[in-house]
Design goal:
Strand order of the largest sheet: 1-2-5-6-9-10-11-12-16-17-18-19-22
Order of helices and strands: EEEEEEEHEEEEEEEEEEEEEEE
Number of helices: 1
CATH superfamily of one domain: TonB-dependent receptor, beta-barrel domain
Strand content: over 45%
CATH topology of one domain: Maltoporin, Chain A
Structural class: mainly beta
């Protein structure tokens, strides 16, 4: 169920309160058949699967509230706002995982709890300089309970979804400039500072992590680490997108457009739990395009360039299977890192017609 109340307190001040109620139950039956006896050293035999399947009702009853959303429109082109919001992502089953022979708690390894988030944000949205400049700024802070993180458990040879608590806070600035003296020109930019860290969380160690590197806990007979205060995955502190587009008519029916965008990312770690071998350096990425076609959009020819600097980066990293050794000892060995890479430099000619 969802409900929302909007109250116009004055002609320039507005408050919005909303609530959502969700009651959810999931069913799953896990089976792991195979026709070769060799994998038994990794996969738990079928006769050991009793109690894995069947019905699971995780505690996913949740209330969603967006409260005290105030707006001030003092000059018809500036709006101030503040908001409290909460969110929810359902729990479930790691059906992409395996029932590992090495697992001490298969049910816990193949299930994960719902994720919740709540926090505050405040900012300003404005259109100024005689409607030529759109300028927005937002500050935010959100806390996540049971943040769902995909992680390859090399100690049990299985992919799992693991939950941990986290907090993110930061500032976003966005602008768009369209000068009246040069019709067709659009300059835009997005700038973000974000600090995202784990909070009060104990998670599995990555392969090769020694006690001196933080792998000093034991949970269910497996090495664990405390990641409190460590950065979450794929969370650069600074990021920015800047670019521009210029479009001009050619006669009465044709048009020409050129565009370019640059994206900057500060250094970040794509590993779920901060493996130092996975650290990505800061980088720039450039895209550009040239278009020629009809003003009414009947046909269009475009030359598109993506990642023109051929920058390499990854959005996720896992420990390589059968490489490295489990963490927790002084002589632990790092595993190879397997990354999910981006698309390299791509040049494309696009022909488009509408009929």
């Amino acid at each position: 169920m969802f409900g929302q109340l909007i109250w116009s307190i004055t002609p320039t001040i507005e408050a919005t309160v909303g609530a959502r109620y969700t009651d959810e139950t999931k069913d799953s039956d896990f089976r792991q058949p195979y026709n070769n006896a060799a994998p038994e050293f990794i996969f738990r035999p079928a006769d050991a699967e009793d109690g894995l399947g069947g019905r699971r009702s995780p505690p996913v009853v949740h209330e969603h509230l967006t409260g005290s959303h105030g707006e001030l429109d003092a000059r018809a082109d500036v709006m101030l706002y503040a908001a409290y919001r909460s969110g929810y992502k359902s729990g479930g089953f790691s059906i992409s995982g395996i029932n590992s022979m090495f697992s001490q708690n298969p049910l816990a390894d193949l299930t994960f709890d719902p994720e919740t988030a709540d926090g505050f944000e405040a900012g300003v949205k404005s259109t100024i300089l005689d409607q030529q400049l759109r300028l927005n700024a937002t500050a935010y802070e959100y806390e996540f309970t049971d943040l769902q993180v995909d992680f390859f458990r090399s100690d049990i040879f299985a992919f799992n979804t693991i939950t941990a608590d986290a907090r993110t806070r930061g500032v976003e600035l966005g602008l768009e400039y369209m000068p009246q003296g040069l019709p067709g020109l659009n300059l835009h930019g997005e700038f973000n500072y974000n600090k995202s860290t784990y909070e009060n969380s104990q998670v599995p160690c990555y392969s090769g992590q020694t006690p001196a590197m933080g792998c000093a806990l034991v949970v269910d007979d497996f090495p664990y680490q405390d990641v409190s205060g460590r950065p979450t995955a794929n969370a650069p502190e600074f990021a920015a997108v800047m670019g521009g587009r210029y479009e001009m008519p050619l006669g009465d029916k044709l048009r020409f457009a050129i565009a370019a965008d640059a994206r900057y990312s500060d250094e970040y770690n794509p590993s779920g739990f901060d493996n130092p071998l996975a650290m990505m350096d800061s980088y720039w990425n450039f895209d550009a395009s040239v278009r020629f076609g009809r003003q009414d959009g009947l046909w269009d020819v475009a030359l598109l360039g993506k990642n023109l600097t051929n920058t390499f980066y990854v959005s996720g990293v896992v420990d390589g299977p059968s490489t490295g050794t489990p963490g927790g000892t002084a002589d632990s060995v790092f595993a190879d890192q397997l990354g999910f890479g981006n698309v390299p430099r791509t040049i494309m000619l696009q022909l488009l017609t509408r009929f």
